[in-house]
What we know:
This protein is α/β, with parallel strands linked by helices. It has 6 helices and 4 strands, in the order H-H-H-H-E-H-E-H-E-E.
Amino acid sequence: MELTPEEAELAKLFTNNWRYMKFAAANQFYIMANDHGLDYDNIRKALAYDYPRAADMPGAGFAAGPCLFKDTMQLAAFTDNTYVLGHSAMLVNEGLPLYLVSRMETKYGLADKTVGILGMAFKGESDDIRSSLSYKLKRILQFRCKKVLMTDPYVTVDPNLSPLEDVLDQADILIVGAPHKSYRTIESDKPTVDVWNIFGRGTVV
């Protein structure tokens, strides 16, 4: 199948925007459930059970990186800022770090706490920090808590990262920024905010 250059460019933008909007829907559903003390990931797994139409519903989590947000902004510009769905998706996805910090502040109190962020890449199993929402999370936390510690087994370009052992030892609260598989074996009894549910203990904050 052949496309014109303009059609090919829109095909690429539509693909990334479709993914971005699906992540935004999942994150909005997560916020709805979480606000009522309900576990979105448990709900998601149940509604997809033996129901193929819902099998592609994503889990909640940070949706960013060098393509999805940028391509959504490109379509917004292409439509003279009339891209309502795209703008809404950006508000939801870009707003998730602040939402989580606000929930943490209400539940745990942060002013005297050290928070450890597990994973600074924009997605799991990656060393790429471009447009990573973990860094937006860090900036928000710096205004709300006593100290922020960061760790990531793959990222090598940030001299401010700490070894995982130090973060686990010094942090009062942990929050998963990137769902690296190696984190699944972490054993800690400290409060953990895990919107990805990589620890299998639920997503409620």
